[in-house]
Amino acid sequence: MSYNHSGGGMMAQRIKRHGLLLLLFITNLSAQIRPEVVAVRTDQLIEIDGSLDEDVWTSIVPVTEFVQRLPQDGAQPSEKSEMRILYNDNYLYFGFTFFDSDPEKVRATILNRGGWIHRDDKLEIALDTYLDRRNAYLFEMNPLGTQDDALISDENKPSTDEWAWDGVYISEGRVTNFGWVLEVAIPWNTLRFPNKDDLTMGLAVKRYINRKNESVMWPHIGLEYSSDVYQVSQYANLTGLKNIKRGNDIKIKPFGITGSQKQIIDNENLSDDLGTAGIDLYYGLRSDLTLNLTYNTDFAQVEADNAQINLGRFNLFYPEKREFFLTRSKLFSFGNPKQTEIFFSRRIGLNQDVLGGTRIFGQIGKNSIGALNIHTKGENGQPATAYSAFRIRSDVRDRTTIGAVITDVSNNNMQNSVFGIDGQMRFWGSSSMNVWYSQVDDSKLDNPSAASMIRLDLKNDRYFLSTGQHRVDKDFQPALGFVQRTDMIGTGLIAGFTPRVGDGDELIRQWSFSLYARDVKNHSGISETGVLQLSIDAFLETRDRIGFKLIQNKEKLSQGFTLGNGVEIRKGNYIDQSFLLNARSNQSRGFWGDMRFSKGDYFGGHKTTLSGSLGRRFSNHLTLYGSVNQNVISIPSEQDFTANVYGFTAEAALNRKWFGKALIQYDNFSEQLQLYCRINWIHTPGSDLFIVLNKRYNMNNKRKELIQNTQVIKLTYLIQI
Fold this sequence. Notes:
mainly beta, Immunoglobulin-like, 24-stranded antiparallel beta barrel, 5 helices, 43 strands, globular
């Protein structure tokens, strides 16, 4: 949630009054007795082939004490699971045997790395290598061995950025006549960990049985912890790891690009032959600190942004998709996601090429640190610019952290610097309190400006309450950040009840009832936005979902704004009421979809929206899906108009090394049609060949006009020393 409540003196008194109780609770939590598994050292050669046929595997007594989390928390699993763990100087090995009473129904369909593994049966391995009970590596695999991976930060569900982390590891799986088997080898140089002769790591393992909508875990993390496998503080201990060394820990990743690009800008035809090379270097300064150097960084393989139409008065948010900036990006996060972010890497190099840069990131004791300095070329009418950021977060007590951030953007025309501090305290399972404050100093402004937030979240599996306050000054503009709205004091509350009524046999597994209220004032005390929402959602045992929402929006526009199609929204006071119906089917089916229908007022007029998507998986090798967002809008004194976005995507996989994606999208505001295609070959782990085709047409004339035509071949190769 983004709106947040100051709490005032009363809240501060309550926290102080119960401070001792909280301290005792947290101390007791840290001292709890945890399940433990001992990794067995081996000198035997382990072949990762999805068969646990080496003698050392059969000699290990497996971990079998998996416990059901869903649908019946704490119950015995419907199917038996076994886990075995080995290691040597180079790898950490996992061997899993997953029994299934009906092995023909084991779902194993996805071949694309980083694809839709949640549609299949799957396994998740989470490793807290520093044993900080806060952060972890996540490895996800289906019964074919298809991989996805992410970084877990502060016990939160990984963001899109964190899922973009590409860890190098080996996995092979196979479906058998008794279930499925999975074999995994994680290189030690993929992980960061303390330099100790005797290591203990945190470990959690989760198996998901798709057709039963059943999840089982070791160790058991109950429903009172809403973060599920991301609840790092509840992990078991992985012991027995002795004399592990990371070696030189040098990774060199050069790349080469060839191709051509044609663009039409202001009726001028610009054509270039693309031919360049660059390099990324990763060097382990110590076991817990990494230096990353980049030169002539290029992002030719990056996927196209999804088309959006802005029907409001605030900026749209586009996520980062460039691998270089996604790596450990969460380390630099500060502020309210998608609203007031102090570090937003898309500010770097969108209209200028990245010449080079340096990053340092890692964990020193109880401190997570990150620093970067990136330089862009002077081109396209913009001067050469230096971007810098420093972030630190420190554990002051179990599940309590404080931190600071510094950013700076400078060139010949300006300098913009930001300093911020923040803190987080977690308690009562999934509850937390978060605060942050930041200040901008800009060479073009006489005085500094500030933004801040305080938020209290109380939640378990049945109830949730979140309240807080979010403040942003009128001139608050961090040059390396993203700010959706300035001159605001937003106070909000959301409360809900989420009873579980099913245990696997009923139609509905869980209900969700929620009330959301928000008021946004400017710094003169005038209320500009008021929101009131009532929502009801039903989560079915089949993993389908249906919901209904009533919405009231109040807007006081002191000045009008203009939409992308030239339609003017005039200043005035508006009270808009609407309703929303939504439904979503289980995406693990061969045919799936979702639908949203809303109807109501829109700035003194009316708006009807129908949006949704449909998808069809034809085989392991081909999936097609399309999306549509149609808005029919009527505004007094303006001609009726539509705002529509259409998209179609094809995903193909020859095997687990060769896959491709094609995207077609069009919106009637820009009247541009984009055709994008990317083929990816993982020729060795961590190394890729990309073939990218990108065409864009202007469709506002009777005759379509090609305004962009790009063909690129990019080859990367990972060298590990």
